[in-house]
Amino acid sequence: MNENNVKNVEIEGSESFRDSLGIVEKSGKRKWVYPKEPKGRFTNARNVFSGILLIVLFGTPFIDINGHPFMLFDIINRKFILLGFPFGPHDFYLLGLTMITTIVFIFLFTAVFGRLFCGWVCPQTVFMESVFRKIDYWIEGDHRNQRRLNESSWTGEKTFKKGVKYLIYFSISFLTANMLLAWIIGIDALEKIVVAPISEHTSGFMAITLFTGLFYWIFIWFREQACILVCPYGRLQGVLLDHNSIVIAYDYLRGEPRGKIKRNEERKLGDCIACNECVVVCPTGIDIRNGTQLECVNCTACIDACDNVMDKIKKPRGLIRYVSQNGIKEKVKKIFTTRVIGYTIVQVLLLSLLTFFLTTRSEIDVTILRSPGMFYQEQPNDKVSNLYDMKVLNKTFDQKNIEVKLLNREGEIKILGDNKSIDPQEAALTKMFILLDKKSIATMNTPLVIGVYSEGIEIQRINTSFLGPVEKKEHVEEHNDKDDSDKKEDHK
Ligand code: SF4
Ligand code: SF4
Fold it and tell me: Residue 78, SS3?
């Protein structure tokens, strides 16, 4: 069948599916989806991948490096640990840059690979398809039995099955809520909440209750509506995808015109035998043969269902497959379009910038500024002092001792108080005097270079200035004038 004919079939076949949702009845009521359990190589691969992701999700909070979490997203106290490295409010510019880089990456990734993330990585899909729906099949049976059970009146069997299912759903939601909290506050803090009386950790207890309730509600009732009605990433697909993006698509050139298979009759139709297997497995209730749709979460169930059918009728697999619209139409795999090249250049630039900032990021930040509103102080033994504010930010997990030295001239530094030792992840503000010999001051503004040392290693050099006595300057000028006039006298 040529392409024009296919287009006509599509138009004649009506685009009405674009005006409705597969999960909503014509009357506006929700249509509960009972997808058939998918089986096949993609489902197997996704099960394994989901298992790995779940291990990472539940296992990471238990990883400890030198007494600190491996990963922590403490948004409440604005403390973050990524791969064992601490980040705090002072690293706000890094957070901003990381967010911009991530957004560009999402644009780039989606432009090339469509909603691959939704099907394989998104926690909603992982939990819904690889955990909770599997529990449905295990307790209530296949999709037909599930429908029958839901529509039947309450019997002993129904009460038992539903009771067990709700209990398991609740337990997993409770565990997930604890895990989420462990990512935010750390596993040690979570342990304290779990073992101590509720009255000592009211906010922690409320957070666990809230998250448990939310997860339970999403997975027991809200389900696929989260992807179709709420997820902002799903809504953005219309602008992120183009005809070269790889999506899960039905090869209409190969499949149309579709029609039932008849025994002992030479087939003049396309490869789609209108068995509807790809529709009954779809967890969002759509027919992928209508084309790419917002509801499709790229779960691969329809690929497996159709491949199984193709195996049975001895046709090549891949009538539904990962392919772009242009890939179907022109049989080419063009990935690097002008848009993708543009995104890639921006992405590389952002990643380079981020890498530069991360690799040059200091563990201790020191700023030294002359105290505002202060001039200079005359000191005994013909010395002059300036008062400075020193701010030290310790970004590490360890206590740090700081030393400062004058590098470009003779002088003395006196730190006031006992504030040279800085606590981990803390900032300390201290005052210090710098004393110079009056004789050595030749100008009103003397440039100083201060070396900052931690554990004997120079970590920073700071340029500042020292205000000297004006009289000295005048004295020096007078002295110079006197020298000049003496020279003139000698010359005479
Ligand atoms: S599973 Fe394949 S053959 Fe069956 S209706 Fe879907 S596309 Fe056609
Ligand atoms: S159309 Fe296919 S890939 Fe998309 S959600 Fe339905 S079954 Fe999953």
Answer: coil
Positions of E strands within 395-487: 400-406, 412-415, 421-422, 427-437, 445-454, 457-467
Ligand 2 atom closest to Cα of residue 299: 8
Look at residue 242 and give its three-state secondary structure. Answer: coil
Q: Check if 279 has its Cβ closer than 6 Å to any atom of ligand 2.
A: no
Residues framing ligand 1 (Cβ under 6 A): 250, 255, 258, 272-278, 289, 305-306, 309, 319-320
Residue where the block lists tokens 């099955």 = 161
d(CA 280, CA 302): 9
pTM given for the model: 0.79
Ligand nearest to the CA of 38: 2
* The pLDDT of residue 121: 92
HSE toward the beta carbon, residue 294, CA cutoff 13 A: 22
**Residue nearest ligand 1's atom 4 by CA:** 275
Residue 439 · residue 345 · CB < 8 Å: no
The structure tokens listed for 254 are 């190969």
In angstroms, the Cα distances linking 149 to 16, 158, 285, 312, 318 are 32, 7, 19, 31, 35
E-strand stretches of 50-107:
64-65, 68-69, 72-74, 79-82, 85-87
**Amino acid identity of 463?**
N
Q: Where are the domains of the chain?
A: 3-330, 364-476
> Which ligand has the nearest atom to the CA of 288?
2
Whole-number pLDDT of residue 168: 97
Give the architecture (CATH level 2) of 364-476: Sandwich (2.60)
For position 333, what pLDDT does the model report? 66
pLDDT tens readout for residues 318-340 = 999 999 888 898 877 666 677 77
Protein residue with its CA nearest to atom 8 in ligand 2:
299
Residues of the chain with pLDDT under 50: 1-13, 472-492
Cis amide leading into 257 (omega within 30): yes
